[in-house]
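Reading a protein record of the kind used here takes only a little practice. To see the layout at work, look at the sequence and tokens printed below.
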Amino acid sequence: MFPIHDIDYDASVARLLRDAALPTTDLPHSRVRFLGAVDGSRLLGCVALEDCGDDALLRSLAVAPSARGAGLGAALLAAAEDFASAQGRADLYLLTTDAAAFFTARGYASAVRAEAPPGIAATAQFSGLCPASSHFMRKRLPAGDASPGR
């Protein structure tokens, strides 16, 4: 498995997300932090966290077809959860059209869209980029160590 670290939103990330049919139009203007796994110059997978105040919105989880089946998606998700927890986020939310079973298996539960926190509801992804039929999900994160150097 390749190490997961901060990456910039660039053409390779945009291409991977478009190939996975994930929204990208708002990413250049969002408060999003990307984590990714890279093999040389080839992006294997990425995930993003959008800062929404007290909470965070998980988005843009994608793995290149050549890297699927080796647990990279789960590793990217775990890295994003660890980062969000270390930043003091209590809850992580997401919207998905076709991966609800993947997230349910990792501790996420269905949430009521009408009860979304204001910061989550104000995101472009929540308010218009993802269809109303998307599964809205939430996971309570363990209290993280937000101390410097973690």
